[in-house]
Amino acid sequence: MSGALVLAPLLAAALFGAWMALPAPSIPAVLAHMRVRALSGTEWRLAGLCVLNIAGEELWWRGFIQPRQEPVFCQGTWFVQGLLHGLFHFSFGCDPRVPMCRANTTPRYRAAQTF
Fold first, then answer.
1. pTM of the predicted model as reported, rounded to 2 decimal places
2. Distance, CA of 8 to CA of 5 (rounded, Å)
């Protein structure tokens, strides 16, 4: 939900900016200006998997783990929840092909950069 609250105004601002930048604005012209194209079947499947992954993770952390932590940690549940959530994602490691991980200087990263 919080992601939608952040992304919706950004998308609205991008659409409004594209609308104002065009001499004869129309919806197809705005989409062409923003280089929006139709998704392929594989991209739709990937988008669906991403949505299901996010929904499943929310159900797991907020629907299953958090209610069991609240009787134990009371007001500190948010802190424990954040630590466990961070450790859970940290366990997946960092892919050197991802721009946020390019500062990684492990041999695996250097080997990946040679190809």
1. 0.48
2. 6
